[in-house]
Amino acid sequence: MIDDYAFGRITIEGRVYTKDVLLLPGEEVHSPWWRREGHSLDPADLEALLEDPPETLVIGTGFYGNMDVPEKTLKALRDKGVEPRVARTTQAVEELNRLMRTSARIAAALHLTC
């Protein structure tokens, strides 16, 4: 579960992260999580996640929503049976916490800043 999120900072299970995070099912956190192109999410950026795809991937596009999620990325997720949910990171964190109460096969890719 996400304890708290503010611009550039997220707390997961009591641990603070200041770099973008990829949260895999089972609450395994990869941080810093880097993308090929800083403000665009490419399918290759999700390789670790797609090795054992979750049911749902919550994508946080940043505090102001500046990270782009191209259609090719959404298609790659759907082709693997993953339901993408895209929102600004504040709303994505709320959605993630809600979903984690009902399913263990939830993952998240969260951009923490812009």
TrEMBL record:
Signal sequence annotation = none
Gene3D superfamilies given for it?
MTH938-like
InterPro entries to which the protein is assigned, alphabetical: MTH938-like_sf, NDUFAF3/AAMDC
Short name of any one Pfam family annotated for the protein? DUF498
Q: Which SUPFAM superfamilies match?
A: MTH938-like
**Origin, by domain of life?**
Bacteria
Task: Kindly provide the name given to this protein in its UniProt entry.
Answer: Mth938-like domain-containing protein
Query: From which source organism is this entry?
Result: Thiohalorhabdus methylotrophus
Source organism phylogeny = Bacteria, Pseudomonadati, Pseudomonadota, Gammaproteobacteria, Thiohalorhabdales
